[in-house]
Amino acid sequence: MTVALLAAISTAAAVWLWTGPDLATARLSRLTSAERTWPWQSLRRHIVRPSPTRRADAWHRATIELCQSLAAELTAGRTPGEALTRAVAAVDFPDPETLRPLVAAARDGGDVSAALKAVAPAQGGEGLCRLAACWDVGVTVGAGLAALVERVGGTLRASQAHRQDVAAQLAGPRATARMLAALPALGLLMAGALGMHPIDFLCGSLPGFACLVAGVALDACGLWWTHRMALRAQAS
Questions:
Q1: 77 vs 53, more confident
Q2: Among 68, 102, 63, which Cα is nearest to 85's?
Q3: Using one digit for the tens of pLDDT, what is the confidence trace for 168-214?
Q4: Residue 72 pLDDT greater than 70, yes or no
Q5: Alpha-carbon span 68 to 153, nearest angstrom
Q6: I need a surface site. Which of 7, 39, 109, 159 has the fewest CB within 10 A?
Q7: Do 145 and 80 meet the contact criterion of CB atoms below 8 Å apart?
Q8: Cβ proximity of 156 and 163 under 8 Å
Q9: What's the rounded Cα separation, in Å, for the pair 115 and 106?
Q10: pLDDT digits (tens, 9 = 90+) for 115-127
């Protein structure tokens, strides 16, 4: 009974990792859900930290929305500082607290370009750095800032579409790797159901323990290697 229960829990966890919603599905669910945010959702957002890849992707999406909103505000005839302040307030950034220096610089007439570069994160902040360069050109040279921001937004949207296409192509290999990682747990479940007592062999003898350690190590290395290859493909 213990062997079957342990194997069932391992299989269920592996299947959940395999069939769990991806980033795009989670994003669509948040957009189509009600606007009200429940307290437990806010608590989960503070406790559960996203991975660096997902956090960078969130910054990319937020920067695209910022360019769209900023271009709309500038086209409506607002001053650059007021337009940027309103645009930042309209976008849901992953970490809004870090943008306070940017809002202060835009509101008080400070160095907005330097503030954009300062608040840009190491991963996912390329768009903010491009926006800072556009701000320098638009303010110092006198070029049309709205047109420059729209061009930056178009470039960022094209890059985001490319990353999403690569992620969609990598969904199959990632699912296959997760399925292969779950097969040992399924084998334990089948062996336990047949009364072979695999846990007794794996944990009760030196050869069995060696097989257990080697199997877990190889399984973990396979998942890690697949994850690394997927990250390199997304970064290319």
A1: 77
A2: 102
A3: 887 887 788 888 788 888 888 888 888 878 888 888 888 888 888 88
A4: yes
A5: 7
A6: 39
A7: yes
A8: no
A9: 9
A10: 989 988 888 888 8
Reading the block at residue 119, the tokens are 């608040």
pTM of the predicted protein model: 0.58
Three-class secondary structure assignment of the chain: CHHHHHHHHHHHHHHHHHHCCCHHHHHHHHHHCCCCCCHHHHHHHHHCCCCHHHHHHHHHHHHHHHHHHHHHHHHCCCCHHHHHHHHHHHCCCCCHHHHHHHHHHHHHCCCHHHHHHHHCCCCCCHHHHHHHHHHHHHHHHCCCHHHHHHHHHHHHHHHHHHHHHHHHHHHHHHHHHHHHHHHHHHHHHHHHHCCCCHHHHHHHCHHHHHHHHHHHHHHHHHHHHHHHHHHHHHHC
Q: Which two tokens stand for residue 186?
A: 């399924």
Angle (nearest 5°) at CA 19 between 14 and 94: 105
The helix-helix angle for 2-19 and 145-193 (nearest 10°) equals 160
